[in-house]
Design a protein that fits this description.
Elements (H helix, E strand, L loop, with lengths): L4 E9 L4 E8 L2 H10 L2 E8 L8 H16 L4 H11 L3 H15 L4 H6 L7 H13 L2 H56 L7 H15 L1 H17 L4 H11 L3 H24 L4 H11 L3 H15 L15 H13 L2 H47 L5 H7 L1
């Protein structure tokens, strides 16, 4: 990134008007030089300690709004200041100002975006470069925004479907632990005062509660350590490859995760083909948009096979790509309609994954309620079952 720090400034213009704003610069001196270059004389300059939180939806909104403004007849140089004024995030306002300055200095829009690799993906840069070369920047901005929006929706849908059972089971385990550690000991103390044997179910639950209380710290550490380890290693390439291989072998999860990734891959490839970008360059852009190293490796292997002279369909790894993918890509490559076949594959996997996520949620919701009810019901029955024998115990006493 060309500028690493965000600075908040208050300055005096040549007309004597006091203005304020934010600016990206590598140092305090660089920020002052940029302000002086615009005939703005800084009065105060302070570093913003706000961390750079680049939200993907902001980039999507930027390209969509650019498409609307360009479609209305405005130029790119006119559109960026309008977007700067209405953007709520200070770091984005400063970024848009920087992009506008680069355009005024004679830089192309794609070259200006290339200075911000943490914000704009290689796909966005390639699409803007294609739009500049073909004169269809508005179309490229709109297609890019729509692609990012669809992928965010699909990713959120899959994550929700996978997180829902974990959330319900976690809440159920929390309720069970509360009953075992707080409620059961009180009942056990009461039952000890009666000289009567307890039912086997109650005895087993009480022993389980005693075991939990005795080894509570060790059990808590055993549950938290894997979670902490997974969180700390989530960016490690080897860990990403291992987890993805395990996920792709799980019966239900495999279908959702693979469908979401294939939808992403074919959507980006279709988008680059429609924009006129060469397939290898589009494949490289697609690889850069993937966060998981496992899928990056698969596309890297695909690029290497194509570079060595293999056809596109034969370079697809049949361990991750479905037979339908291979067949349609082969048909599209032979008929010269590869972009159409890629678009069909993207739409197919997108719709199929959406339906599978909805179906999984519809199946898991009653199933998890039944499992939770059985667990809690068993504990309640175990706690209250001895009460039915208290009459005999009292009469014997």
């Amino acid at each position: 990134m060309g500028a690493s720090q965000l600075w908040r400034w208050r300055a005096l213009t040549q007309e004597g008007v006091i203005e304020h704003g934010t600016i990206w610069a590598a140092s305090r001196q660089a920020a002052c030089d940029r302000l002086m270059k615009k005939a703005i004389f800084p009065l105060s300059l302070s570093r913003c300690w706000l961390q750079k939180r680049w939200r993907p939806e902001h980039a999507c909104d930027l390209f969509y709004q650019l498409a609307v403004l360009l479609g209305a007849g405005l130029t790119l140089a006119q559109s960026l200041p309008l977007l700067t004024e209405q953007h709520p995030a200070p770091q984005w306002r400063a970024l848009l100002v920087s992009l506008a300055e680069d355009l005024n200095d004679g830089s192309t829009f794609s070259a200006a975006l290339q200075k911000w690799p943490d914000v704009f993906s290689p796909l966005a840069i390639a699409m803007m470069k294609t739009g500049e070369l073909t004169g269809k920047l508005e179309v490229c901005c709109r297609q890019l925004a729509e692609q990012q929006k669809r992928q965010r929706q699909l990713t959120a849908k899959v994550k929700k479907a996978l997180r829902y059972p974990l959330l319900v089971l976690t809440l159920a385990m929390g309720v069970v632990m509360a009953m075992v550690t707080l409620v059961l000991p009180e009942f056990a103390a009461i039952y000890k005062t009666f000289n009567t044997p307890l039912p086997l179910l109650t005895q087993g639950v009480i022993r389980f509660a005693a075991f939990i209380q005795e080894w509570a710290l060790l059990l808590t550490a055993a549950l938290l350590l894997p979670v902490i380890a997974m969180h700390s290693l989530r960016g490690h390439p080897g860990w990403q490859r291992l987890i993805q291989k395990i996920v792709l072998r799980l019966p239900v999860v495999r279908t959702l995760v693979r469908g979401q990734k294939l939808s992403h891959i074919f959507t980006v490839l279709s988008l680059t083909q429609q924009a006129g970008i060469a397939f290898l360059e589009g494949l490289e852009s697609t690889q850069a948009t993937l966060e998981n190293r496992f899928w990056q490796d698969r596309l890297a292997e695909m690029r290497e096979r194509i570079t060595q002279g293999a056809t596109i369909w034969s370079s697809l790894d049949d361990s991750v790509f479905t037979p339908l993918c291979i067949q349609l890509v082969r048909t599209g490559e032979a008929s010269g309609s590869l972009d159409l076949m890629l678009a069909n594959l993207a739409r197919h996997h997108h719709e199929q994954t959406f339906q599978q996520a909805d179906s999984l949620a519809a199946i898991l919701e009653p199933l998890l309620l039944i499992v939770t009810g059985l667990i809690i019901g068993t504990l309640v029955i175990a706690m209250y079952l001895p009460i039915f024998h208290l009459g005999d115990a009292i009469s014997m006493g």
